[in-house]
Amino acid sequence: CLNLPVKHFSSSSSSSSSSSSSSVIPDICTVFTKNPETLRSLLLNERVVNWRNGLIFRGLPSSHCDLIKELATLSGLDITEYGGYNTFIHYSPENTDWQEKVLLLPVSILDESHAELVDTHLPYGGNQDSLNHVRACIRHLPTHCVMDEEGCPASWMLSDELCELRMAYTRPEYRRAGHLPALSLALIRRMSSLGLPVYCHVSQHNQAVINAVTSLGFSACPSIEQISVLLICKDRV
């Protein structure tokens, strides 16, 4: 196993295009290692992790979180943790039945102008960092949505820099119409055609979504630890 973190949309590459620090996208990191000492070494290497900037650690096994929180606290940073996610993988997207579902509304793709709407419905949204991240995902990565009669997204699903399907949401007045299953199939097909892995993380308490992803051909990975997301703020309030 290659014991290296993967970082995308780093703040260092974004700062040159914006004079406002509030518009800088934070480093988004994940770590692949089973060795606690390797993990500590990586986290203490300033060329790998810049603790002086805002950070988001995503897709982390829960066993990694205590050490990350310890080091963040020593650096005087605030931490918010979203935990209890299980991993679901689609092992054979090429064998999925691609029968198109007839929807009353047309399937389209998101535009950057839709970023604020998407960000509003994220559990950790509502700040400039998350908004910039959503914009970057829309600009660079596969997305699908269903538009209402006025051209506003009624339901949507995005992929992110770790190839995960996420940020899915349907506005209440458009629910129970099959939009998210249709968008999921469209995005699975698109990711598969690009040769990308197809997976997602679902809260262990959200049985409705677990049932939905299972019906789409995803399989739970019981051997994989529960996954957490850590948001580490640059300044302690």
Automatic annotation (TrEMBL):
Region described as Disordered: spans on this chain: 1-24
Keywords tagged on the record: Acyltransferase, Transferase
Gene Ontology CC: mitochondrion
EC number in record: 2.3.1.-
Residue ranges occupied by any Glycine N-acyltransferase N-terminal domain in the UniProt entry: 27-142
Iron-sulfur is among the record's keywords: no
Residues of the Glycine N-acyltransferase C-terminal domain: 145-223
GO molecular function: glycine N-acyltransferase activity
Top-level lineage group: Eukaryota
Keyword Glycoprotein: no
Matching PANTHER family: GLYCINE N-ACYLTRANSFERASE-LIKE PROTEIN, L-COA N-ACYLTRANSFERASE-RELATED
UniProt family annotation: Belongs to the glycine N-acyltransferase family.
Name of the molecule in the record: Glycine N-acyltransferase-like protein
